[in-house]
Each structure stands twice: as C-alpha cells, then as structure tokens.
Amino acid sequence: ITMPTCTLKRLVQSGAGTTELSGALTVGSSTRAAGAAAINDLTISAGKLDVGSSGDNITCTNDILLSGGTLDADAASSDGNITCQSILMSGGTFEAPSSGIITVTAQASTGWSFYQTGGTFNANGGHVKVDFSASGAGHFNPHQCHDVTIEMYNSASATVWRDFTGNTMTITGDLTIAEGVFKRDLASDTLTVTGDVSIESGG
Known about the structure:
- The protein is mainly β.
- It contains no helices and 26 strands.
- The protein has a 9-stranded parallel beta sheet, with no helix packed on it. The protein has an 8-stranded parallel beta sheet with strand order 3-6-9-12-15-18-21-24, with no helix packed on it. The chain has a 6-stranded parallel beta sheet with strand order 1-4-7-10-13-16, with no helix packed on it.
- The radius of gyration is 16 Å and the shape is globular.
C-alpha cells in the first residue's frame, strides 16, 4: 500500500504487508499533558511502515508504540525526521533515519520518553534528540544511539539514562547537552561515548 501526504487521528499497522509513504504523515489529535498516560497515535505490531525512497517526515502529536513489525525511517536517498512525545518499544525493528532526527518531546505517565524493553533499534548513524517543552524528568534507554542531543525545558530538568541490557549505554557518535542534566539511574551503569561530548551553557 502506498500512502500519500495525509493527516490522521490514529494509524495502526498490524497487517503482514508494507505501507510505504509517498508524502509526510501527521498522526494524532489533541496533545496529552507531559507525564500523562501514553496515547498511541502510531501503533506498529506487524508488517512494515516505510518512509519510502523520499524519506518523508512522520509527526505524531503524542506517542509511537512499536511491539512488532518494522518502522523503517532509513530512506534510500534523503531521510525525513520523526517527531513525537515518546517512543515505547517492546518488540519489532526500528530503523532510525541515517541523516534525519528522531525527536522526543515529553515523558509518558511511566516516566519514559524513549522506553525500549525489546526489539531492535538500529541507529544507522542518525541523531536522537530529547527536546522537552515543559519541566520534568524523562527516562531514556535505547541500547545504542549514534548522535544524541539533550535539550530539556530548563537547566534543572533531567534526562535519566538507563541501560537496555548489560549495564551499558553506548553512543557511537557525539553527545551534546544543550540544556538540562543527563544522568545515570544506577551507579553500576556505564555510558560509553565514542565521539565528542559537548556541554553548553545550560547543561
């Protein structure tokens, strides 16, 4: 199935086939409050949602739930961006855009802005940004990212990183803390950054 540019209240990918975007996708209606229960505007449990060769943007008013299947945002040419409040991943495969940005903007009631309990997150050399527009802390645990930017609401707000497995989070590119605090949840966890670490005036 090919899906043109559209705005939907909710999208569920649950079949065995592939839905390929040929234009930007906007999903959701009213925005939930930060810290409220997740509203799964985009749900993928089987099959594949593919941004296609043009790498179109996906914008969710609220949350993305991935429990199976594949969300493929790594386009053959130029990648688009993915923006949502939180990502809750319990299974499936998430192919991150290699040249676009994944932006999460608020924690759900569980406290998570990016929560991976299963499945495979392939960073593909891309960029994940935590960009909160309201005060509060959000937990973050994708097993391996490339570039990561933390830009919280203010310098006192925190992103708490936690390991997905093995007591380790690995950032294979650069870590930039533009605003707020980036701290570990447990003293036994190890953060490995293979690129540069930049801490700006609000970080």
